[in-house]
Each structure stands twice: as C-alpha cells, then as structure tokens.
Design goal:
By secondary structure, the protein is mostly helical. The chain contains 14 helices and no strands. It starts with a helix and ends with a helix. The longest helix is centred in the last third of the chain and has 28 residues. It is globular, with a radius of gyration of 19 Å.
C-alpha cells in the first residue's frame, strides 16, 4: 500500500500520534539554548520571568514542534521507507492533517513571538522560515549534507541563544554573546549530521545527500566530530582570553569527555551514532551553559 493510500484510512489524527508528530524529545536543545541566552545576557530576572517562560515554550514545544511537524509532512515518502510506523506514513495522522498542524503551529509561533517584542518576533520569523526552507520544496535544504545540518544547527542553538539574550536585554546582545552563540550553532552541524545516520537508507533512495550518504558512515562521523570539536576549542580559547580561566577549563573538561564518547562511536558509527546523540550531546550542551555563565560574569 502506498503512503497516499495509507494516510487516507482515517479521518482525524490520533492524539498520541499528534504528540509524537511534534517530537517532544527534540524540544530540549532550543529550550536550553534560550536559557543560555537568558543567563549570558546578565540581565536581572526580576519582573521578567514571563519573558523567560514564554520564550522557553516558544523555542521548544511551539517552534521546534512546528519544525518537526513540517519535516514529517515533507518527508512522509522518505519515512515510509525508513520508519513506516511514524505518524503520517502509518496513517495515524491521516490526509493533510500533518500539513495543517504544521501551518497552524507556524501561525501560533508568530503570535507568541509577537509577545516577546521586536527582537523576539524577528527571531521567530527567521525560525519559522528556516524550518520550512529546510524541509519544503523547492528549497529543501536538507537535500544537502552541508547546508541542511548547518541551518538546523544555527536554528537549534544560535538563534534561540541570541533570542534569549536579546529579549532579556531589550536590545542587541553583546558581541561576545553573539560570537559564542554562533560558535555553538556551527558546532551543532556535527550533531545534526549524526542524527542523519538513522535515515541513511531512505535518504539514499530519495536523493537526500546527507553526509552519511555522500561520505559513508565512518568519514561522516569523523567530519561530524571535527565540526563539533573546533568551535568548542575556539570558545575555550576565547574564555581564556576574556579572563575566564575556570570556565574555559570547564569547557575543556566536557570536551575531553566527548573525546572518550567519540572513540566509542568510531568503533561502529552507524550503530553508535544514536548513543552518541544521547551521551556526547549532553556534554556539548553542558559546555554551552558553562560558557553562558562566563559571559554573564562579563556583563
């Protein structure tokens, strides 16, 4: 049975499938990045807790959830190969409900972003456009193993970090904040590359040129780890230069633990990539918060 036939077997989405469509497990990184922005701004939280809570919800359940729904809709034929039990190809999200959910959440994102002022709204507009540019034709940047993960990394880490700092400061963040947020977003390209390992077969069959497809699992894993490592080395170096040696050492410690996790993954990149995304990524984002506290002390 084709994907088109399957998704017309029901009239309404299953509630559990709708929740699975927006993938709560993916919300944490942008929510954490927004909090990093809040901390790095050095702004007082007194009277601003609404902006913190609203921004975290916007970054995670709303914008990130919307991007996941949009991606699943645009990837329904790929998922029919890789993961036929996903909500859309399995028929639990029938008809065009996947598209309608993504569009409704795009509108909700803009409405909530408007409540965060001009900086928050502008960042939300960029986030929504980036989500659709990644997944939807004719742009569909996910076809590229370089542009796709790069866009997602910046959207997951740099953009919410910048947003949190700008909203709490009610203005453009300090240049140091922008630099560190950008570096961690660039490094997240490697995280997104490792995430592509689970879709290797379907990507190959449908013309998505992810790095695991074009380079093979071993080389793609090596490139991903290099891309994650270099920005963290730069961040640690900058923290030393900015007279934050203890924070710099903290970043180096979590990076050294990532090196251990990388050696484990290199033994079987395709099988161990999901494990690394649960282990190495936790260490990566821990370093983000260490850097955020260093920036707070510079405000």
């Amino acid at each position: 049975m084709s994907v088109t036939e399957v998704i017309h077997t029901r009239r309404f989405p299953e509630p559990v499938a709708a929740l699975k469509l927006i993938k709560p497990i993916t919300w944490f990184p942008p929510m954490w990045a927004y909090l990093c922005g809040v901390v790095s701004s050095g702004a007082s939280l007194s009277g601003q807790w609404v902006l913190v809570i609203l921004g975290v919800i916007l970054a995670g359940p709303i914008v990130c959830g919307m991007s996941q729904a949009a991606n699943d809709w645009c990837d329904r034929h790929v998922d029919a190969i890789n993961e036929p039990n996903r909500p859309i190809p399995s028929g639990r999200i029938p008809g065009r409900w996947g598209l309608w959910i993504a569009l409704a959440m795009s509108a909700l994102s803009l409405f909530v972003g408007w409540q965060l002022g001009p900086w928050g709204f502008g960042a939300t507009v960029i986030g929504v456009l980036a989500a659709w540019a990644y997944s939807a034709e004719p742009v569909r940047l996910k076809r590229s193993g370089w542009w796709g993960p790069g866009l997602v990394g910046l959207s997951y880490e740099s953009l919410p970090w910048f947003t949190g700092a700008a909203v709490l400061s009610a203005g453009a963040p300090r240049i140091e904040v922008v630099i560190v947020a950008l570096l961690y977003g660039i490094g997240a390209h490697g995280i997104m590359t490792l995430n592509d390992f689970k879709a290797l077969e379907g990507d190959r069959e449908t013309g998505v040129n992810s790095l695991p497809v074009t380079l093979g699992p071993k080389r793609a894993a090596q490139v991903a780890c290099l891309v994650m490592t270099v920005p963290q080395v730069v961040v640690a170096s900058l923290l030393f230069i900015w007279d934050k040696p203890l924070h710099a050492i903290g970043v180096c410690v979590v990076l050294s633990l990532q090196f251990w996790a990388m050696t484990v993954m290199f033994k079987d990149p395709k099988a161990k990539a999901p494990w690394y995304n649960g282990t190495g990524v936790l260490l990566y984002i821990s370093g983000m918060m260490v850097a955020a506290f260093a920036l707070k002390g510079m405000s």
